[in-house]
Design goal:
Layout (H helix, E strand, L loop, with lengths): L3 H8 L11 H4 L28 E2 L7 E2 L2 E3 L4 E13 L2 E12 L2 E4 L2 E5 L3 E8 L7 E4 L20 E7 L5 E7 L5 H6 L3 E7 L1 H10 L7 E9 L13 H6 L5 E4 L2 E2 L1 E5 L3 E8 L6 E7 L2 E3 L1 E6 L2 E9 L2 E3 L4 E7 L8 E6 L19 H9 L12 E8 L25 E10 L2 E4 L9 E6 L3 E7 L7 E5 L4 E7 L3 H4 L18 E4 L4 E7 L8 E7 L2 H5 L3 E7 L1
Parallel strand pairs: 1-16, 2-6, 3-7, 4-8, 7-12, 13-17, 16-25, 26-29, 28-35
Antiparallel strand pairs: 4-5, 5-6, 8-10, 9-11, 11-12, 13-14, 14-15, 17-23, 18-19, 18-22, 18-24, 20-21, 20-23, 24-25, 26-27, 29-33, 30-32, 30-34, 31-33, 34-35
């Protein structure tokens, strides 16, 4: 077990100041330790209440928890159980990736490597249950990808060895254990995988960005805690079907996080590491929504900076943004906030079940959840406190990188339909079977996948392994999405550049182009699945085979 003194700085939280009263009263929890559903109630870590944001944001820099590890040779990664002080004065059982390099120890390291370099690592499973690592967004041979079939048992070892062929960008790695992904990821098995290249260095130099100072990786997650402040993960049948939601929001595992900033431009590498929660992100000062600039998505930098005032971010997606804190005066606060939206749960093209609108159905579905924070509720994620400092106005380059469109002339069209049957979500009418291939594609072929979500259901973040894609078009988007679709063909800013995860709303069809070119010998089997992790574990996943 990691000692609390080793991790206290990581949590970045103060000692509990509640004198008298039981822990269940302090945390606003019932004596049973279970979280009650229904209306959102104020409690010390309520993310809706701005005054609660007082815990210093943890910023990963050196060794230790979430330390930045510049990969310089083979790594030995060990998956193990530990304890973590996620809430003040309380320790939570946690799962960690541990490794060492150059005599320094790391837990859940942020791995940083050069594009084109070789990555070699062994995974030792010291858990009491099976596990495996998936390198989310990386282009690897199937055997290196972390397919559920690669899951190793307790005491097992798995060897990884592949060339990092991706362009520079913000990727990540996490467990993909068969039918255990949701619980293991929720309990900690995830971190960033940063790839550098000339485009990334050019941007950092032009904007005077420094990782850990003005370039901040930021993973956003929502958690539930029991009366002892321990992580709670006990989905009932409804929550296993809809997805597990928390009600305490963590930024870099810090609840109610605050970060001091000066009036200059900051880069935030935003990762939605939640199991099921979708965020509608905006920067807000008082009642005013401020502009920010998107410079990258899942697969690295987009072609040119795009200024927006909000963006959806689904589980598994990344959004690389620049924010000018000089839009506020010293002494003022800015909140990174998730704005309210219609979760559209159990809503299809006809507008819902039994004539109920999305918000009415959403409220009914929320009342069935153990979370006090319904999907689509408005709340804060991070407070930026502006302090005095030199005003630095960034001059953004007109071009960030080159994103060549995938040539689609003559491309085969493939229909991908999301549906529901027997109380589980399906892809083309299928649920996951380890040895079943849903379809084959030819190596080097270009296909257009028409991913539709036509039936009663909910939004689904769909993720492909082994390849990146480009979003061509959104059709039938709900008004809240269509209102931000100013990038042609119904696309939003989150759809630009190279993607590996895309959110598909009820009644919507998203058309994506995929180039299945690679140089790996023989047939390669990958998965395509929903990144609502409860959906993935519940079988909303299929195998596809790329034939040589």
């Amino acid at each position: 077990m990691l000692q609390r003194r080793q991790l206290f700085q990581f949590a970045g939280v103060a000692t509990v100041a509640a004198a008298g009263g039981a822990a269940w009263m302090y945390y606003g929890l019932p004596r049973s330790g279970a979280l009650a559903g229904g209306p959102f109630r104020h409690y010390p870590f309520d993310p809706v209440a701005a005054e609660n944001f007082q815990q210093k944001l943890f910023i990963p820099v050196g060794s230790g928890p979430f330390g930045v590890l510049d990969v310089a040779g083979p790594l030995k990664i060990r998956t193990t159980a530990a304890s973590f002080p996620l809430l003040p004065g309380r320790e939570s059982p946690f799962l960690l990736y541990q490794t060492e390099q150059a005599g320094k120890a790391y837990q859940n390291p942020i791995l940083r490597i050069e594009s084109g370099a070789r990555f070699t690592a062994s995974l030792d499973n010291a858990l009491e249950e099976p596990t495996i690592i998936h390198w989310h967004g990386l282009h690897t041979p199937a055997a290196m990808d972390g397919h559920p079939a690669s899951t190793i048992g307790p005491g097992g070892r798995y060897a990884y060895d592949f060339k990092v062929s991706n362009r520079g960008g913000t990727y990540w790695y996490h467990t993909h254990a068969h039918e255990l992904t949701a619980e293991q990821a929720y309990h900690g098995l995830a971190s960033f995988f940063l790839v550098d290249d000339d485009d990334q260095r050019r941007l950092s130099k032009s904007l005077d960005l420094q990782l850990g100072v003005t370039d901040l990786p930021l993973v956003i997650q929502d958690k539930q805690f029991d009366a002892q402040g321990k992580l709670l993960y006990k989905p009932d049948a409804h929550e296993a079907m809809m997805g597990w939601l928390g009600d305490i929001v963590l930024a870099n595992l810090t609840p109610n996080a605050v970060q001091a900033v000066t009036p200059r431009t900051y880069r935030l590498r935003l990762l939605n590491g939640s199991n099921a929660r979708i965020y509608r992100l905006a920067f807000v000062k008082g009642k005013t929504t401020l502009d920010f600039t998107v410079i990258g998505t899942d697969g690295g930098l987009i072609e040119r900076p795009e200024t927006v005032s909000e963006a959806f971010l689904a589980p598994g997606e990344r959004l690389d943004v620049l924010f000018d804190a000089g839009q506020a005066q010293p002494g003022e606060d800015i909140f990174l906030r998730s704005l309210a939206f219609d979760a559209m749960e159990n809503e299809g093209p006809a507008g819902g079940m039994g004539g109920m609108g999305g918000m009415g159905m959403g409220r009914m579905m929320a009342s069935m959840s153990s979370s006090r924070l319904p999907l689509g509720a408005e709340f804060n994620v991070l407070k930026l406190s502006v302090t005095a400092g030199e005003r630095v106005v960034a001059k953004l380059p007109a071009t960030l990188s080159q994103v060549k469109p995938i040539p689609t002339t003559g491309a085969a069209q493939r229909k991908i339909e999301l549906s529901m049957g027997q109380m589980r979500f399906l892809i083309n009418g299928r649920t996951f079977r380890m040895d079943e291939i849903a379809f084959d594609v030819k190596r080097g072929a270009v296909e257009i996948w028409n991913i539709s979500n036509p039936t009663l259901g909910m939004p689904h973040p769909m993720h492909i392994h082994g390849f990146s894609f480009q979003v061509l078009e959104r059709i039938g988007s709900p008004p809240q999405v269509a209102a931000t679709a100013r990038f042609g063909q119904g696309r939003t800013v989150s759809d630009l550049g190279w993607k590996d995860t895309v959110l598909v709303w009820p009644g919507e069809t998203v058309r994506v182009a995929i180039d299945f070119a690679h140089d790996y010998p023989g047939d390669q089997i990958y998965v395509f699945h929903c990144h609502n992790l409860e959906h993935e574990d519940g079988g909303m996943m299929i195998n596809f085979r790329v034939q040589a």
